[in-house]
Amino acid sequence: PGDNEWTDCSVSADVRLQALTRLRSVFFGRNSSLGRRTLPLERQGSVSAEFAEFVENTRWQADAITFATLHVVGSSNNVQAAERGRRTEADLAWLDAAFATARDRSSRGLVLVMQANLFEKDSPFTKPIKDALLRNVLAYAAPVFLVHGDTHQFRVDHPLVGPDGTRVAHFTRVETFGTPDHHWVEAIVDYDNQ
Predict the structure, then answer these.
(1) pLDDT tens column, 142-173
(2) Strands 58-62 and 65-69
(3) HSE of 27 in the Cβ direction (CA atoms, 13 Å)?
(4) Which of 16, 44, 15 is nearest to 28 (CA)?
(5) Torsions phi, psi for 49 (to 5 deg)
(6) Which of 175, 173, 169, 174 is nearest to 140 (CA)?
(7) Do 168 and 194 form a contact (C-beta atoms < 8 A)?
(8) What percentage of residues in the chain have a pLDDT greater than 90?
(9) How many CB atoms are located within 10 Å of the residue 126 CB?
(10) In sequence order, what are the residues at sequence separation of 6 or more whose Cβ sits closer than 8 angstroms to the Cβ of residue 23?
(11) pLDDT digits (tens, 9 = 90+) for 6-56
């Protein structure tokens, strides 16, 4: 989910949380994707009793690539500190688990999907996610792709910078199109060109 789906819904925090609860029940209520041809999904809410409510954080395998979603939204990652703090805890645990799963499965790469743009500005609300991402990427040798929306500018780049000040070459960010441009992005995995 992104900010347009629930955090921008109303001036009332209660209405926002009601929208999130409804999103979880309608779109994330089963351990498979939506659509005609479904994919089996591992949901954080199904594999972690500690974070049972976070059914929107998912993970799946396609060929030799591990995919994972993280519920990190734009607009300051929500303005309600208690909800944001709990969700950030879940996101950090799920991010670490995604990298661990990719290593355990000997994945040829990892694709992470979230709504927020971690690289737009240094936000205290998303800094823990960005720091954990850097730590995990540096410890993982295979390619890592982060797909996100949020700031409505299509781009493909390498914005993650290591402690030595150099760009992390095996990390690629893809920001998808947003309003007013509605397009799709196709990615092709070439295992012979890594």
Answers:
(1) 999 999 988 888 999 999 999 999 999 999 99
(2) antiparallel
(3) 13
(4) 44
(5) -65, -30
(6) 169
(7) no
(8) 57
(9) 25
(10) 1, 5, 6, 56
(11) 676 666 777 778 888 888 888 888 888 888 999 999 999 899 999 999 999
